[in-house]
Amino acid sequence: MPETIPNIALRNWRAQHHLSRGEMADQINTSQAGRADRLACDEERIRRWETGEVRWPSPPYRRALRELTGLEPAQLGFIPHDQDHVERPVTGRIEPAEAFRSEAELFDTMDLARMVTASDLGHGTLDTLQEASDLLCRAYPSALAAELLARTKQRLRYITGLLGGRLTLRQHQELLVTAGWLSLLLGCLHYDLGEREQAETARQAAYQAGLQAGHGEIIAWSYEMAAWFALTEGRYGDVADYARAGQQHAGMTSAMVQLVLQQARGQARLGDRRAVRASLNRGAKLLEQLPRPDHPEHHFVFDHTKWIFYAATCYTWLGDDEPAAEHANEIIAYHTRPDGSSNAPMRTANSHIDLGIIHARHSELDQAVHHGITAFGFERKTEASLLSRAEDLDQLLDERYPGEHLADEFHQRYFDERVALQSKAHPDS
To answer: Percentage of the chain surpassing pLDDT 70?
Structure first.
């Protein structure tokens, strides 16, 4: 799929009104404006609007949309042609390998510059360290977790050394902020690798760095990580508590949207359908208030496709299979490169689990197992989270298809993956 920005506002309006794309198209055609202009809207046109391939519908369709929704096109997430160049991000998604390589080159250059200066911090070092931190966060989606973790640890040790040197108050605060972002990243990587205690230590370090630097967004992300851990570990009642606590610090940032959507996932696990829809709706509205991200691949940036990703899982847990499948398939399509690989393998893997569960519910065992096995095939995985989702599929297959060879095949793969994660997390046990 080309680099487009999904229209979350329109998609969310349709979801809130419980309409399929075909049903919405029919209502546009049968509206007074639709009949007057003899419109022939269909599912494909709605899809193109929602994926962002068409950012500004033609006048007849804008009239019909106003009549159907009672909202102006801009309120539905459409962007006029004269504003389109302003709204689009300046820089598109980069490959994680490029970000990883660029960070190494940048850091080496900075270190050389520092060696020939008399002060503890050479000119521009603080800015360069922050840029290096951003590049590592942009490498997160598919850079190998172990390699990224080792690099992140190195950078944090370097910054810790600088914090012990001669610094002004401003320099100390800026270094704390950079250390906070890197600690957040480190915590995510430890958790991805099943290293729960190390992940919590890093999360707490990020919280303390944010507190000392007076940086609300870092504090908010530390709470979001706690909510994520609770969700994965089955402590669903704690998810909303952590999410609400984080929102007290987040302000109008990506962390705020992430916390609201994480809250939606916790509510979905508890089966609170009304609360989920309210949270998805709130998250969509908050997202439209944020500027379009320059670097949507940055792990601590909430981009528009992440809303679709989270919504897919919420709908799957609620048993709303039609919107769940629609959202999951679009995530896979959006992140698929021309060669068939994924530029966001962790999202793609979880979306395959969503589809596996949906197929299992609809007595499509072969497709359910296909998607489940596919989810394990990505080298870059959020292993603890993926295994938590895969457990849902494994239990469903066991309940509905006892003794079936394909169900047993998935169970064995799931079991092997869990043992492998435990071995990595506890190599001496």
So the answer is: 89
Contact between 343 and 93 (Cβ < 8 Å): yes
In the chain, where the domains are located: 8-87, 303-429
Q: Is the pLDDT of residue 46 over 50?
A: yes
Local structure of 122: helix, strand or coil: coil
List, for residues 400-423, the tens digit of each pLDDT value: 999 899 999 999 999 998 888 776
The Cα–Cα gap between 221 and 110 comes to: 28
CATH class entry, domain 303-429: mainly alpha
Q: What percent of the chain has pLDDT over 90?
A: 64
Helix (H) or strand (E) holding 341: none
Whole-angstrom distance, CA of residue 238 vs CA of residue 45: 41
Residue pLDDT, tens place only, 94-137: 565 677 667 766 666 665 555 445 455 655 778 888 988 999 99
The pLDDT-based confidence of 151 (bands split at 50, 70, 90) is very high
427 pLDDT higher than 60: no
